[in-house]
Amino acid sequence: MNIKKRLGRLKYHPLIQVLGRNKGNPRTLVLIEPLWGIPYNLIAPFATLYMYTQGVTDVQIGLILSITMVVQVCFSFFAGILADKLGRKTTTMMGDFFGWGLACLVWAASQNFWLFLLAALLNCFEQINQTAWYCLLIEDADQRDLVGLYTWINIGGLVAIFFAPISGMLVSANSVVPVVRVLYVLFALTMMTKCFITYKFCHETRQGQVRKAETKGISPFRMLGEYRQLIPMLLKNRAVVKAVAVAVLLYIANVVNTNFFSLYVTQRLGLSDNYLALFPILNAGVMLVFMVGIQHKLNALKFRAPLWAGLGLYAVGALVLLLSPVGGLGFVLLNVFLTAVAASLVNPRKDALLQLNLDPQERARLNALIMASTVALSSPFGYLAGWLSSIDRRLPFGFMILLFLLAMAVVGRIKEPQVEESKS
Questions:
Q1: How many CB atoms sit inside 10 A of residue 294's CB?
Q2: Among 214, 242, 227, 231, which Cα is nearest to 356's?
C-alpha cells in the first residue's frame, strides 16, 4: 500500500505537473531527449581519448575546437534565418540529421586529424538545430515552467549516463577505438530515429507560423543584413548582455572540462581509463537526486542566489582537482560531486534566464545572434586550452577557476527577471 500511495503522490510532483501543463512540443522533446543523451553520454568520456589514441595531439585537439568554433559562428548567423523561413520543426530536424546523424558516421570512420576535423565541421550543423530547438521547446510553453522544462531536458540526458558501465566494460575488454567506433554508429541511428519522431509528433509553433508568413519571399541575405538593427537592440538590453556574458564564460569552461578532464585524470593523475565511464554515473546520480528531490524547493530563491552558489561550487570543484595527488581517486570523486551539484543549480536557470529576457517576436534571430556571439568569443580558448595543457595539464583547470569567478561577479549584478504566465 505504501508503494501505491507513493506512486499516487508522484503525479503531484512539481516536475510531473510541468509536463501535464505543457503538452505537445515540450512534452515530446523532453521524452525523446534520451535518444540524444544515451549515446552522447556513453561516448563523451572517451571522445578525447579516442582522438588521442589515434595520434591526435593536445594542440591538434585544441585546434579542432577553435576551427569548429569559427565555423559555428557562421552557422549560428543563418540558424535564426532558417528557423524563421523554414520553421522551427524543419530546421530542428535538419540540424539533427547533419549535425549528429551524418557527423557520427564520419567520427566512426575517423583515423587521423583531417577526418576528425571533418566530423567536427559537420557537427557544426548542431548550431542550426539549437536555435530552432529552443524555440520549438518553449514558444508554446508556460513561461513559469521554463526552469522545470530545462530541468527535464537535463534529466533526459542524465538518465542515459547509467548505461555508461556498459561502455566502460567494453572498453576494458576491447580497448577504446573499436568500442567508440561502434557507439558512434549507434549514435547515428538514434539521431535518425529522433528526426522521425520530431517529424511525426511535433508541430510548428504559433510564433514559427507567424515568422514563416512574415519572411516569405524575403531573401535570406536581406534577413542577414537586418542583423545590423538587431545587434544594437541586443547590446542595449543590459539584462541580456549580462546573461550572455555568463553563458559565454560557462561555455568556455565546459569546452575546457569536456575535452581535457579525461586526459588530466588518466595522463597526470594516473587513474585507469575504466574510471572514465564511472565518473559520469556519480555525476548523473547526484544531479538526478538534486533535480528531482531538491530543485523545486529552491523556486523561492529565483535565479541569482542559486546561480551564484552553483558557480562557487564549480570553482571549488576545479580547485579540488588541482590539489589532487597522483592516484587521488577521492579528490576526483569529490570534484565530480561538487560539479554535479553546481550544474544542477546553474544549467536550468542559466538557460531560462536568457530566454525570459528575449523579445518573443525576434526570439529565433536573437538566439542565433547570441549563439554566434558565444561561440565567436569562445573560439580562441579551445586552442589556448590545448596549448596550456601541452605545458602543464593543470593549467586549463586553473583557467576554469578564473572563468567561474568572473561569472560570479556578473551574476552579482543581474536583476531577477519578471515571469508572466503565457497566454494560451
A1: 12
A2: 242
Terminus-to-terminus CA distance in the chain, angstroms? 39
pLDDT at 424 over 50: no
Other CB atoms within a 10 A radius of the CB of residue 215 amount to 18
Alpha helix segments (H runs only) across 54-175: 58-85, 88-96, 103-109, 113-122, 126-138, 146-159, 164-174
Grid coordinates belonging to 13: 510532483
**Residue 8 pLDDT greater than 70, yes or no:** no
- Residues 101 and 342: their CA atoms lie apart, in Å, by 31
- Please report, to the nearest 10 degrees, the dihedral formed by the alpha carbons of residues 328, 332, 333, 334 taken in order: 100
What Cα–Cα distance (Å) separates residue 61 from each residue in 72, 107, 180, 252, 322? 16, 14, 17, 15, 22
CA 168 to chain centre: 23
More confident residue, 331 or 259: 331
CA distance linking residue 267 with residue 273, whole number of Å: 10
Q: Per-residue pLDDT for 35 more than 70?
A: yes
Distance of CA 63 to the CA centre of its chain: 21
CA–CA distance, 368 with 132 (Å, rounded to integer): 9
62 CB-near residues (< 8 Å, 6+ apart):
259, 382, 383, 384, 385, 386, 387, 389
Query: Residue 377: how many CB atoms within 10 A of its CB?
Result: 18
Mean pLDDT of the chain: 83
Q: Write out pLDDT tens, residues 290-334.
A: 877 777 676 655 778 888 899 999 999 999 999 999 988 999 999
**pTM confidence score:** 0.68
In total, the chain counts a number of residues equal to 424
How buried is 235 (Cβ within 10 angstroms: 0-12 exposed, 13-18 middle, 19+ buried)?
Answer: exposed
CA 199 to chain centre: 22
Comparing C-alpha atoms, which of 124, 130, 108 is closest to residue 39? 108
Distance CA 346, CA 290 (A): 12
pLDDT at site 107: 96
Q: Are 201 and 25 in contact (CB under 8 A)?
A: no
What cell was used for 237?
A: 538590453
Please give the C-alpha separations between residue 106 and each of 76, 110, 124, 242, 272, in angstroms, as whole numbers.
Answer: 22, 6, 13, 37, 28
Determine the average pLDDT of the residues in 169-194. 91
C-alpha cell at 308: 551564484
